[in-house]
Design a protein that fits this description.
Number of strands of chain A: 0
CATH architecture of chain A: Up-down Bundle
Structural class of chain A: mainly alpha
Largest sheet of chain A: none
Number of helices of chain A: 6
Distance between the termini of chain A: 38 Å
Oligomer: homodimer
Shape of chain A: elongated
Helix content of chain A: over 70%
CATH superfamily of chain A: Phosphate transport system protein phou homolog 2, domain 2
CATH topology of chain A: Methane Monooxygenase Hydroxylase, Chain G, domain 1
Order of helices and strands of chain A: HHHHHH
Radius of gyration of chain A: 19 Å
């Protein structure tokens, strides 16, 4: 019984790793599409999201079967519950990367981002590229140090995001309404990607330690995880 | 053993009902704050979100304990898994209602919504008020017909949302940049509230029938559920 459980748990962990790699590729691709007006990359991110969604559904199904047949307890149960939640988080991250790719495709061959905001958006994208790579490593190695660095550094992304919001607020900024809308929405998609990466990092810490850092006293648990 | 399980399941179902009522009140309150520039209601929505977040954490913990100690199968297992997912969805809905209330508080005593867009936003809010009431009934009665009507009618909210986006896009619209940003973000929060209500409805159908309508052929499962 125990051997079967571990084999099945291994299979679902492999699927979750695959999902994390898909999400990493989608984040990299969305950034490239946005930065270089690369419509082919944009399209491949959009098309690729279907597989990510399917993986999410399959992972939840596998977890429910594991719970039904194997009655996991302690660390194994934590792994199964956290795996379900991670798959839901990764599905949302895939959706957000797809939204960015769709914005890049819509304005092709131009960028949706006004020229003088592109440096800040590139910095956000650089940040997310690193985060996406870290997500994959963190998950494959159940690496708490990487998870903690993702949680700790998310403020940098929020600061960049705030900078884009301040630019957009100024009525002196010579841009179209559509450009303001794109700056606001793409900025929010990126900020949300960072929030979901933080949420995923908390789940990995929970798997390893059984401790949920979202419940640390004084931490504003619900903030912006929507 | 069985009696204990049902008692514990009843306790967590009561908490989930409580969460749904909190979310309903938050949605109603956010709408009232936005419509009537009522800063006291706005503040109570913002303050109330703390309890909703705590309930979500408590519900997930209770579900994990149930899974560990009772090894539920079949319908009971479906209920536990769906309850976890519903609590996560309701937590996000609480966050979104809080974001709307925060926008209303920020611009007090003015509305963040330009006068000529207020009718459309009021219509979105009317729609969400009905949806919020339906969520509570649907959950308390495990009512599939109500769940299906929430899923079916979400298009109406999307149409209203699209109308606000079209208004914002026009460079002839005499508004400030900040007003465009608020129209875009508050509109998106409302649209997302509708999406999450759809997602919750699917979970209720899954509890009752064991069938996940998100997996219906041809349905775009991952769309915008982020």
């Amino acid at each position: 019984m125990r051997v079967i459980f571990n084999e099945e748990l291994k299979a679902v962990a492999d699927d979750l790793d695959r999902m994390a790699r898909n999400v990493r590729d989608a984040i990299h691709g969305a950034g490239e599409a946005l930065r270089n007006q690369d419509i082919e990359v944009a399209q491949s991110v959009i098309d690729g999201d279907v597989e990510t969604d399917k993986l999410a559904g399959s992972i939840v199904d596998q977890c429910v079967r594991l719970l039904a047949r194997q009655n996991p307890v302690a660390i194994d149960l934590r792994v199964v519950v956290a795996t379900m939640r991670l798959s839901i988080t990764f599905e949302r991250m895939g959706d957000l990367a797809r939204h960015i790719a769709q914005a890049a495709r819509r304005t092709y061959p131009n960028s949706p981002i006004p020229a003088d905001a592109q440096d800040t958006f590139n910095a956000m994208q650089d940040f997310l590229d690193v985060t996406a790579d870290r997500l994959v490593t963190m998950l494959a190695d159940r690496d708490v140090a990487t998870a903690e660095s993702i949680i700790r550094e998310d403020d940098k992304l929020d600061e960049l995001h705030l900078k884009t919001m301040r630019m957009a607020q100024s009525d002196d900024w010579q841009v179209t309404h559509q450009q303001i809308m794109d700056v606001v929405l793409i900025g929010r998609f990126m900020e949300r990607l960072g929030d979901h990466a933080v949420s995923a990092s908390r789940r990995v810490i929970y798997i390893v330690s059984g401790f949920d850092p979202a419940k640390e006293p004084g931490r504003d648990e619900g903030t912006d995880i929507d």
